[in-house]
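Morning - pyridoxal-5'-phosphate inputs below, output right after.
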Amino acid sequence: MSVIDSALVQIRQLHPYSPGKPVEELERELGIANAIKLASNENPLGCSPRAREELARAVAHVELYPDANAYYLKQRLAQKLGVAVDQITIGNGSNDVLDLVARSFLDGNAEAIYSQYAFMVYAMVTQACGARARVAPALGTDSNQPFGHDLQAMLALVNEKTRLVFIANPNNPTGNWLLQDELQAFLDALPEHIAVVIDEAYFEYVDLAQFPNALHWLARYPNLIVTRTFSKIYGLAGLRIGYAISSPQLCDLFNRVRQPFNGNAIALAAARAALDDDAFVEQSQRVNQQGLQQLRRGFDERGFSYLPSAGNFLTVQFNERSAAIYQGLLQRGVIVRPLANYGLAQFLRISVGTSAQIERLFNALDAPG
Ligand SMILES: Cc1ncc(COP(=O)(O)O)c(C=O)c1O
């Protein structure tokens, strides 16, 4: 027996997360410059200039450990979101928070429920804890949210072993969303001892009537955990900073399993400044809506269909041509995201870029050969 054999079975069976291809990697492989990445739902405008200034200031003090309690960031978040400081858990990206939640509720006897095609990390953190994943079949292609979460199917999987439910609103990689009434009916129906994560990584991008802000439900549902991130609209994906908002009691649990310095000093400083820059967020929202329209128009003109999306990406159906189109785009320096690992090989996910980047995408798509 090797040392690998003595590792936990659930860890040996894990599939590592497959990220978007880094720009430098493609440029190195092809010997090209100026590649663009529309593969990881990053903000094409970068980050707030205020955040950039603050992070530069923080770089001057990297010899010091960060504030393990993230005092200033939590103060600012609490003020901005209308919650108490003791309801906030900081994470090294919201993925870290998802992991903290899983580790707080799941073990080899527990079950977690999530939807088919839901964000991949729910499967990873569930499996890493040795818990059983109960995957609810997604809504069908005849639904107005094809491949979206089927809340009734999720409820049907609840049993005495269920400890945790993950919901992404909107979901990545499909872009689907759930509206206020249906989500609230789900929360009403879910037994109170089962924790439920509503992952709002793309919340700030959503521009829809009747879209819920899950923070408003925290007082009513003590089992609710809302996760958000600075990686998307705030443009700080490379710094790794996200957070959860929950009851103080749940927050206290997450803080027990949290690594002491999981929010680095540069990220804490930049995130705090990013929260003050409403103009940057509004500009990012505008550019995203325009970009979504530009993408939809371009794909309409070329006869490709796509899933409804409330986020900063569009999931486009290329059917059996997906892999060839992905490779063709790469050859022309445009990185998008294949979704075969989600069981959605017929689609490619394309993050909203600047207008010039989207034009470049379509030029690459139209290029012969
Ligand atoms: C739905 C969803 N949740 C969470 C995350 C995690 O983001 P981060 O760890 O960068 O905060 C992502 C990132 O793509 C996402 O799409």
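Note: The longest strand covers residues 162-168.

O.
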